[in-house]
Structure to design on (300 residues):
């Protein structure tokens, strides 16, 4: 550590599916925040930590999307996201490569006008453009609607220009101490990441209407004595009896698929063998219950 060491908090905002979690995972070099092509994949506030021993430490706060709430879980998610804007040192706003500024973006611009935090605009998914010159147009469009500290085109998926994003963040971070030791990459307890990985595999395996209504609880997670092996019992909670049947599948095939895919990634995360047992339970309307939301680990 030098006396020029910088540190601070950065939040990623942007509409669902724009690539926030993908970018964060890429920057950190490990999968902490789950990703999927379904909106509202990220529910909790997850911190991940990027440490460069010479330059500083960046603490990323991945937030749920800023959108209009439909139920208590939705309200909770919006509050977490909007609260964060004032608390952080830098805001990274990710947008799609397009010159159409929709209602969602307008909503974010209005929110940004109420804060003083510097905003770096990342125009993501650069890799999807056939004509890269289009990017200049998009930059121009966005330049006109808000006074951004910086605008960067990037591809979170391919890692294009992501090192530039890191450089620019350091430019705006204040001088400060290391908040976490240099080996720490997340504040998430392992159990929480395990639950999220299972939820991700369920989101991938199931069709449209079910995913928003599921949560995962870890009922037991124990390492076997003297062995690199964990026994994990987890429950997928859904809102309807009919959903339970779908999640289990014909002769348990769906649940087995979710379990196999999740186990593979959990073994990678824990660097150990995993014996994963999955159950499915119905809890009607859990998304409208404060108690249940807290109980599933969605904390402020
Ligand atoms: P979030 O909802 O903003 O956190 O978005 P995710 O990180 O979950 O990503 C949503 C989808 O967009 C996933 O299928 C990603 O693989 C995809 N995606 C993210 N970044 C890029 C990118 O730079 N290029 C392309 N082609 N796809 C991306
Ligand atoms: K998503
Ligand atoms: Mg996400």
């Amino acid at each position: 550590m030098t006396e020029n060491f910088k540190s601070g908090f950065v939040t990623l905002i942007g509409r669902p599916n724009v690539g926030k979690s993908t970018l964060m995972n890429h920057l950190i070099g490990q999968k902490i925040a789950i990703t999927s092509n379904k909106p509202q994949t990220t529910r909790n506030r997850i911190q991940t930590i990027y440490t460069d021993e010479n330059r500083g430490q960046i603490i990323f706060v991945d937030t749920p999307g800023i959108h209009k709430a439909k139920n208590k879980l939705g309200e909770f998610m919006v509050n977490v996201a909007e609260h964060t804007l004032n608390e952080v040192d830098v805001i990274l706003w990710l947008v799609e490569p397009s010159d159409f500024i929709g209602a969602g973006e307008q909503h974010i611009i209005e929110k940004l006008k109420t804060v003083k935090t510097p905003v770096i605009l990342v125009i993501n998914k650069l890799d999807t453009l056939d004509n890269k010159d289009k990017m200049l147009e998009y930059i121009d469009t966005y330049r006109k609607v808000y006074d951004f500290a910086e605008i960067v085109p990037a591809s979170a998926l391919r890692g294009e220009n992501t090192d530039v994003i890191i450089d620019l963040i350091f430019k705006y971070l204040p001088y400060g101490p290391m908040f976490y030791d240099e080996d720490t990459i997340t504040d998430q307890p392992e159990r929480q990441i395990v639950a999220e990985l299972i939820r991700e595999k369920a989101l991938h395996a199931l069709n449209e209407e079910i995913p928003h209504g599921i949560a995962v609880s870890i009922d037991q997670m124990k390492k076997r004595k003297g062995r690199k092996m964990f026994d994990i019992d987890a429950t997928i909670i859904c809102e309807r009896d009919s959903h339970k049947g779908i999640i289990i599948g014909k002769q348990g095939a769906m649940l087995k698929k979710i379990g196999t895919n999740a186990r593979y990634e959990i073994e990678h995360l824990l660097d150990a063998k995993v014996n994963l047992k999955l159950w499915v339970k119905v809890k009607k309307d859990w998304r409208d219950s404060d108690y249940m939301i807290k109980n599933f680990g969605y904390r402020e």
